[in-house]
Amino acid sequence: MKGKQNKKRLKPILKKSMLTALGLGIALPIGGTLPQVNAGAIGPVINISRPVLNDGIQWLNYSSEQNDPSFVSGVPIEVTNNIVRIDLSTHLRSDEFNTLTASSDDSSIAEVYVETRQDENMPTPTSTLVIIPYKSGKINIELKAYYTVSNLPETVTDNFELNISKKGDVNADGKVNSLDAADLLTYLRNMVSRRGFTYVEMNRMDVNRNAEPSLGDMNALLNGYANKTLGAKNNDYVLTFQQVDDVPYVLNGELKGYMQIGNAIGADYYLMDVDRDDIATPSYQWYRATDASGEDMELILGETGEQYTVRSEDVDYYLVLEVIAQSTSDANTKPRRAYIVGKEAVQRPI
Q: Which pTM does this prediction carry?
């Protein structure tokens, strides 16, 4: 989570129990264990514990509690007791996209859909992503829309994850027990030199929901055990959105230039990254095919530039440019390959 780091190291805890050392006034059972409690959902509707955080989705606000307009950096995360709503109007604009849909890869964990509204007071329709979580787990949310600026509509998808865990289930193992307290203690004792925790992990550690893991979270966790307000009898869940890298799209592509021997042929296209990451310079490969479908295209060896000079052997063939788009945020993501086929075959000289 964002915020100032606590520069004070916690004193080593040796023979004393965890609670005695922290001075929280609650005693652990002998052996330092806590009763294990089922962390599963207790009903068809769960309560969403604020703040709901966002880890790395650039078009979305960092937190559901960003209420100061001067600090808002993206689309607000709107939260009621059991529903999350996110306005998609600026992310997938109606003048560029239509037919917005959303899906979850596991609808038993959370229901996901797009709600579209338009009335006489709205010149353009508004689309809202609606998420209803049901239980602990992780889902992939896929937004899908048609990019309408192209000559033919092209499908664009945007993927991101939603992590859901029971309040107090710090290690997300499906249980609320002493292991959660131990993991939280490890984090607190190493606040300066700790390993790189993700926002997802840190949000789970924020038991008292004050937007920053601290000693108060240990107090809240252990008091929750003592008063039986955490675990199976508690219906509060912690939610964190997390970025999934989507490779840039090559949209509205068209070859430019006269299809005659000796002419230089290039291409116009729109390179779009739906995640709003920086876009790497794409790479290229030229082919020739016998028809406008490009299905039987053959590689033109050595032609990997953005432009191609038409040769005599290209006559009666359709030229094809492969544009290879790559991610700048995840080198392991598979590149996206788009093929732009000429509208006419190369002509013989007159």
A: 0.81
